[in-house]
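User: Predict the full complex structure for these chains.
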Amino acid sequence: MADNQRVVIIGGGLAGLSATMKLCELGIPVDLISLTQVKRSHSVCAQGGINSCNEQTRQLGDSEWKHFDDTVYGGDFLQQQPPVKEMAYWAPKVIDLMDRLGVTFNRTFEGYLDRRRFGGTLYKRTAFAGATTGQQLLYALDEQVRRWETQGMVRKFEFWDFLGPVLDEEGRCVGAVAQDLVTMEIHAFPAAATIVASGGCGLIFGKSTMSVFCNGSAVSRCFQVGAKYGNPEFIQVHPTAIPGSDKLRLMSESARGEGGRVWVPRTPQDPRPPKQIPESERYYFLEERYPQYGNLVPRDIATREIFNICVNEGLSVEKGRMAVYLDLTHIPREELDRKLGGILEIYEKFQGVDPREQPMKIFPAVHYSMGGLWVDFAKSSDGGLQAGDPANQRTNIEGLYAIGECDYQYHGANRLGANSLLSCIFSGLFVGPCIQTYIKQSGGAAVTRTPSTLFDAAVSAQQKRHEDLLNCRGGENPYLLHQELGDVMTRAATVVRHNDQLDSAYAKVEELQQRAARASISDTGSWTNQNVVFTKALQDMFPVAKAILRGARLRDECRGAHYKPEFAMPSLTETDPEARRREAEQWCDRFEENNRRYLKSTIARWNGTDPDISYEDVDTSLIPPRPRLYGLVGAEIIEQVWRERQAKRKEQVATAGQ
Amino acid sequence: MSAPTPANPSSPAHPTKVNVRVLRQDGPGQPAYWERHQVDYEENMNVISVLQKIAAQAQTVDGKKVAPVAWECGCLEEVCGSCTMVINGRVRQSCSALVDSLLAENATEIELRPMEKYPVIRDLVVDRSRLFHALKRLQAWVPVDTYGHLGPGPRINRPQQEEMYPLSKCMSCGCCMDACPQYQKIELQRRPGESDEQYQRRKEAAYEQGFVGAAPISQVVLFNSHPTGKSIADGRLDALTETGGIQVCGNAQNCVAVCPKDIPLTKSIARAGRAATLHSIKRFLEK
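Assistant: Here is the predicted structure of the two-chain assembly.
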């Protein structure tokens, strides 16, 4: 337990805590830095559940491979496949572990874990604990970490703000600098390895379903010193949230997983109470348009349909405000309470309406960042990951790792529901032995050989930034700038994106960034100064905001959550079978051409003022990309053409190999 | 993502301004003082949005420039436990405290105070480390052998899960302790020259003299009913029968009345009480 082995972890959500406990078990001490008490991390907001292939789905033909396939298909093939495969194969083990740790998962009558269905799959893979699964999982990990804390293996630094990694002359990360949010003191944390597990960046969009901690600043601070940022433009907008003035509260996908139906009255803004509108006058638009998946199409599709029905078809249930009905009233009360109690209480508490009696009014909201810090992986001979290899989860900066929502590699262009809790816990557990190897190989040398002057300089640089800000009297109000940033980002870079809007948004964000440099601090004190901490986080939102906008601007296609109508792949229109076949051939040509150009990870690097964008190949060696055809007219014939092409290609490869 | 909510001109009952009175304190050991603020009314506002507006304005109702009121918040949907404070005299989460219902309680103003039983750090921010220390004392965890793969956990039938689940929803917000007459504030001042570790140890020693409180007792019930968790049940009951243990409970039942998650705390205390009594007898006979 030598101190030159100590690892610093930034963030105590599911990813950070699972990494902490795993490292402790391996005998490696951890300093855990968090903006809040780790028990209050944003993971508590995850509601619906956690996916894995299980004994019941297996009997219906499911397998880990199918979970893997659903995940990459749902993500429009933008993921690196080896890590996703490894995750899917670990999933049953992750749930077993959480079960052993005492998570109060819902049970079948016989006492086995109950499962429900989630979006983007036809199997009931999702284990859940009421509608507060994230909270329950987080608590189990929090308890384990507390256990290690009593044994002296973990030092918690709660209410501390990570200000940046410390890099040595060779560019290796040798620790972190952080600030105590109570005393405002700034300290260095030398570390044999540093793991960022800081979650998403929803606050860049002003209001989202995320907690106030999810401001993206930790990731931005790594990005600004040279860490690559992958797929920034892929931001998940959740189809169902409760509009609110301070926050858009999530209404879990599990509401639909348990049978919830989305509809609008066929008559625009029908003034009757919803329960008095007869079936024949209701438009269940998801069920009608996607008969196979119904209300459980992948999130990006559900979101666009709800947005479209309100914005373009004018069928919002209210005048002057956009919302559709999410209806649970046909399900027995007792069953709702048992399976969805937590989220129904949230609706009831914040809206004052009982969703067991009245359909809920919901609308999409920014929810998850698929993109994040670029991380490497070491592929094993079976196409998964090489366990214990120090390359796994490592950013392009040696000694700096990223896990959980803030890494870019598991969800591609769109995340499937109930896969995030899995990716967070999986990456946290998996990174432990990788770090152990890294420390063995480097002997913690990076830290022991690093002169203390390096850490002193890093602390003084942050001290200077802090004091300069306190003395800044530029007249700009950081809170109002944040609102403006949120408005710009929400308008230009969420459900539907247009190049002209992305261009003007970039210019506006540039202007806001300059104004934020002239923020006036209304609190100049040196004790629990939330004002200056917020302003710092705000300033660090701009590099990420710019990466999101530029990534989106340069990607002229539609993929998962990134949707530009101008570049959408059309439905087939020909009716004559031969012409339709030709049309499908052309469709597939275009699809292939598009993939050659855009089936790439967007890589952003910060040049000091703007992000430079380049592209890297995606490892699709395990499952060849195929068109994502949920609900498209002509899907059958396109699928047929595509299958024939794939078969032909396989044949060619086989012949060439002889 | 939401479209803006238009003001509803047809409901004249809504005021245009909301008056807020905040009990502030610049730091530990400093005097507390009242300050008045006023913010524009909006539909569906909660106390969080009121405090956000106060932060953005950074001036009192009289136009005096002041530092923003410090407060803690997190998820804003009542699952993280961050934003506990005393609102109109009642301890609760500020995210789920809706302005309309507060104004129905008192139309003239909303009163915000920090929690009473925890030391103030600044304004509405308090130090709740005592609460987390109690969870350490009571070994509130399942002592598994390893995080390696050993198959599924023990089978738990549905009725048992349904008893455990409500207890595991406790978010350590501290409402139950703040409302408890037996839970007394423990506040230490740092001595000159005292190191972080020394100060921490002195605080923890002081915490161990005070009442553990309802929420941690309820966690003992949760872990002592888990098939693996109960393997260290005796250790938890030892801690629960020491100084500051369950015997301090005066059965005022305030805890269950203020719990935002409707956790059956008094039921937990009764169960823990019975277990503690049996445990004490057992320990006595062992002597």
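Chain A touches chain B through 87 residues (CB under 8 Å).
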